[in-house]
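Per-residue structure
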Amino acid sequence: MSREALAAALGQEVVALDRIPGGDLNDAFLAGLADGTPVFVKTASDAAPGAYVAEAAGLDWLRAAGGLPVPEVLAVGAKFIALEWVEGGGAPDPAAFGRGLAAVHRAGAARAGELPGVGDRGGDAAPFVLGPLTLPNTPRDDWPAFYAESRLLPLARQAHDRGALGADGLRAIEAVADEIANLAGPPEPIARLHGDLWSGNVHGDVDGRPWLIDPAAYGGHREIDLAMLQLFGEPGSRFFDAYDEVWPRADGHADRVALYQLLPLLVHAVLFGGSYGASAQRAAERVRSRHGQDHG
């Protein structure tokens, strides 16, 4: 991204543009504006259509929940997003994170897959986008059916087509999808999800306040976010105790962790290959085995 293009989007001269460490799917920069304002810029030449517009809408939607701070969107385009710079500090406080995330989740969504505000930022649809990956996101009232048909099955088929998930793994995911109504947990309100919630997407500022960054937001089951936090790290008892103070988890939540970790495992299988497909197969087999024990 050139300084000129960024300046045009921000309406101010960009006097510095320095590359900084970023994620696996984007290039990250610290931009300095003429008035001294620092700006975080994320860009990717191969960004999926609508990716940054959807991210901007997701940031706005999560911020509107009021539970946790979220960076302001300063400008967004087809190949970049520019955000308020949040100076980092120590590790985010786990209790504040737990209480805040529960409040974000409880802010809710009308239907599974919902992401309001995309049209306000120039987008025509609200796909679920992670880097080059795009999934269907047509809102529905039925969470279990949405999870099976708009998440698990499309991802499993993509992973299989790319050689990251074997035939046995595909069959295991399809079997979980067939039984999803009995696996997804008791009915509860649709939550407002971050959608890509691992520890690297929780940013601690200089005061230790947790900020939500890099979302792939949509309406869904809150155990999706909680399961992913446990897949790539462990938030700890202080986090969960604080979360449960605001919105106690439903009975049987521990038994559903593997079910809801299938989503990030399959995403990683599609994007990165490696052992993620085998991990997804094992998780699916655990889900079905536990369900069989519970109903045997």
User: Anything to note?
Assistant: Residues 88-294 form a domain with the Aminoglycoside 3'-phosphotransferase; Chain: A, domain 2 fold (CATH 3.90.1200.10). The mean pLDDT is 92.
